[in-house]
Structures are given as structure tokens and as C-alpha cells.
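Record type: monomer structure entry
Structure origin: computed from sequence
Chain ID: A
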Amino acid sequence: MSTLAGTTGRRRIYLMRHGHVDYFSAEVVRTRDTRMVTLTERGRLEAQAAGRAFAAVTFDRAICSGLPRTRETAQLVLEQIPGAPDLEIEPAFVELYGGSANAKSRQELVATMSFHFEKAAEPGATMLEGGESFAAAQERAVHAVRGLLRAPAWRQILIVAHEGINRLILSWACRAGLTAAGAFEQDTGCINVLDFDMVPSEGGAPGPEIARAIVKAINLTPYNYLKHGMNLTSLEAIFARDDASADSAAT
């Protein structure tokens, strides 16, 4: 129940990132299409750990971006929850469309991508050269979140999305615009908890409006709550040179 005077209720969004993937797998190298990448065994274990953590949670709706890695993560979570809702697709939560990095190594690519996240609030900033602007990506994702919050008949929703888009939603939720996008680490398979107090809309606008957003938890990893040994950033772990070095980030 809401504790903010004048509000009509409190709604919760569990915002997840998909499990671990390998953007340098043989299939991705062959097709040159990272959008179709699927979870690794490590990623499936991460999603199953999240499912166990969610076992007692009642979701009214469950949504993913529609890309295979978010769909697979969400399905692995939901299959462990009795009476889970059917999975819905919302393309507005798809990952930022990246441009060209012209990086000569994985380490250089990680550094370049991290630099772009740090500069997300600068006018016209894009995800790598020629990529989608951070402002446009945040606008589409936040528009979708607002639409969900105006929709009737739910209290808790699961959204499975991506590192970049999650960073932008979190930066908006803490009223930082785009300036905090570079600060919100999103490990693979992580869970964020966002509460929203709602008030009746004015002037004939559809549905209730947000009175305030409350960030309850960020980057929880049920497969390793204390993040012991997880000294790599998410980008460093994803682009690790081999499976052994990547796995060492989650032991």
C-alpha cells in the first residue's frame, strides 16, 4: 500500500537483464547478427537462479524485448513460478542499436563502449559512431514504461531487457535524465526493483500518472548475491577472451 498521501497505489517493476551470452560464438561470427545471439550455459544457469529467487513472487504480467536472449531468459524464469502469466513482447525494450566501433581488440571495444555510456547525456550522443542516440532509446523505453504504469489491473510486472536500455530506465527513474547511464552496472541475469507511486491523471489524460519513482534495489544477482569474484565489469565479462576467464567473473 502506498505511504504517499494523495496517491492511488504503488506498482512494482522487476527489471531484469538477460543472462550471459557470447557475442563471439561461431553462429554470431557466421551470421554477423548479434541480435540473434542466445544464452550460453552460464546464462541459462543465471536465469534459473533468478527464477528460484522469484518463486514466491506473483507477477500480473511478464514482458521481454522479443530478442532471443531476453525471451529465453524470461521463459526460464517463468517456468519456475506457479501460475506465471503468458510472456508478452514489447519491442520498445530492445537494446540500443549500436554503430561502428572500429576496435582492434575486445579490450578496445569494451573501453570504447564504456566511454560512450559515460557521454550519454551529451547532445546528440549515440551508441558508437552511427548508432542510435541515447536520448531516442531512453524516450522509447520510458514511453513504454509510462504506458504500462497507466494500464489497469496489475501490481507487479517482470520486464526482461538489456544492459543499455536498463541503464537508461534506471537513470530516468532516479531523475538524472541521461547523466547516470554510465554509473549503473548491469551484470548478466541481474534484477532491479522499481516502485512507482501513482496519482489520478488530470485534464483527461489516460490512466494514472507517476507521483514518484522509488529505486528499491539495483543489479541484484541471485547466482552470486555478494558478487564474490565478480571484479570485471559487465562489458569486460561479456567480451572476455575465453569461457574460462568469463566464468571466473561469477565464481
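Annotation 1: The first helix runs from residue 26 to 31.
Annotation 2: The first strand starts at residue 9 and ends at 17.
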